[in-house]
Amino acid sequence: MSSRVAVVSIIIENPDAVEDVNRILHEAAGYIIGRMGVPYREKKINIISVAMDAPQDLISALSGSIGRLRGVSTKTAYSNIITDLEQSDHA
């Protein structure tokens, strides 16, 4: 199995979804390289950027799970760097 580096961008417009987003991200914590959250108080939204190194299926599933929450949007950008999981820290 291979691992890819990706960035998942999340915009939360529904404050009730914050807890669910954090729960889903916590479940994938072992694959998260870093995370930056920016509350945009003027617009009453939260912007989160999550850098990951994980199997592409896991990244897609995480992004899809978060994107299906009411009032939450996601987009994912993948790097071209692909490594075998045996070579990464996640094996």
Molecular structure report:
By secondary structure, the protein is of the alpha+beta class. The protein has two helices and four strands. A four-stranded antiparallel beta sheet has the order 2-3-1-4, covered by helices on one side. The model has no long low-confidence stretch (mean pLDDT 94).
Overall mean pLDDT score?
A: 94
- Please report the number of helical segments: 2
Question: Which structural class is indicated by helix and strand composition?
Answer: alpha+beta
- How much strand content do the residues show? over 45%
- The CATH architecture can be named as 2-Layer Sandwich
- Give me the strand/helix succession: EHEEHE
Largest sheet: 4 strands, antiparallel
Strand order of the largest sheet: 2-3-1-4
Q: Kindly report the name of the CATH homologous superfamily.
A: ACT-like. Chain A, domain 2
**How far is the first residue's CA from the last residue's CA?**
10 Å
Number of domains: 1
The CATH topology turns out to be Alpha-Beta Plaits
Strand segment count: 4
How helical, in percent, are the residues? Answer: 10-25%
- Rg: 13 Å
Q: Outline, from the CA principal axes? A: elongated
Low-confidence stretches: none
CATH C-level: Alpha Beta
Give a brief description:
This protein has 91 residues and is α+β, with helices and mostly antiparallel strands. The chain has one domain (2-80): 2-Layer Sandwich (Alpha-Beta Plaits). It has 2 helices and 4 strands; from the N terminus they run E-H-E-E-H-E.
